[in-house]
Amino acid sequence: MTDPLTTLSGTLDTVWTLLARGATDRDAPARHPVLATSGRDGAEARMVVLREARRDPPRVEIFADRRSAKVSELSAEPRASLLVWDPALRLQVRLRARFQVLAGEAVAPLWQALPGAARALYGGRPAPGAPIPEPGDHIADPAAHAFCVLRGVLAEIETLHLATLGHRRALFRATDDWQGGWCAP
Amino acid sequence: MTDPLTTLSGTLDTVWTLLARGATDRDAPARHPVLATSGRDGAEARMVVLREARRDPPRVEIFADRRSAKVSELSAEPRASLLVWDPALRLQVRLRARFQVLAGEAVAPLWQALPGAARALYGGRPAPGAPIPEPGDHIADPAAHAFCVLRGVLAEIETLHLATLGHRRALFRATDDWQGGWCAP
Fold it and tell me: In this protein, which residues make up the domain named Pyridoxamine 5'-phosphate oxidase Alr4036 family FMN-binding (chains A, B) (predicted)?
């Protein structure tokens, strides 16, 4: 069988398979992408949990506390990146997306579906990032109004495959109907 | 023995041990941090190789092709982040740094010390990111003038320890002489 990463369509299919696994399998490489946003003092990066990956239309979703820095950063500059590394495939995937912050009624069904332990991640006191005297000085206080969904509508997917016989880089764009093209690695 | 991640000084020591290993050990978790920069269309993220980590003064170094997007992005906005995840410790480390691009004579000794295979990563034709018809249409052409070092002088280190009995977040700042403080996770 031909290695799917040697063709553009095979590469894009591989990306979506990888993302779909990340959204459903806690142990998949795409489960914890790095989200890069524009902060006040330069770019910021942190790991997030991939909650949804849908190919048509191409979008991804993550959950967040509305008071967290990433939410205010995405409100100020919605264009951001997600990075996934699959060590078995030796494939780096960079997603460029424009993020919407969904909250309130729009995400009530997702909040209702969250197990109690997961809800405790949203709404604690004080707010995320606030200084506290000791690590224990933080109280879980699950609150629907603190919960939001960051929905990223994909604009570009860039892949870099670290192959033994030469690295392969490809770029796929929404404006190009995801046809894609090769680039110098 | 007390878990070092329960104290601020122990947390900072752990970060530097982790970074030092990343700079010397190809299999260490800190070997391949994610570098987040400010791109023209929002934040960008990609994996890099950590080449140096020095605690005093606190700085990190990575190598790059001078024609790569990260170099032009750091020239336009030197403030950027590096993210490391240590799965065994369940520790996320975010480094905020101001990057200088060092090239030419300043980095000639590092270029001389690079093995031939490593040199082939800098100076290929066409330049990184340029469209090519097929993945093989790229020629290695090691060139000292294409090699540069991205030196990040650290401004902040933020840690997040995903502990079973409650997550711990800490923030250390150069302006605070790296004394550090706890923050809400």
Answer: 26-102
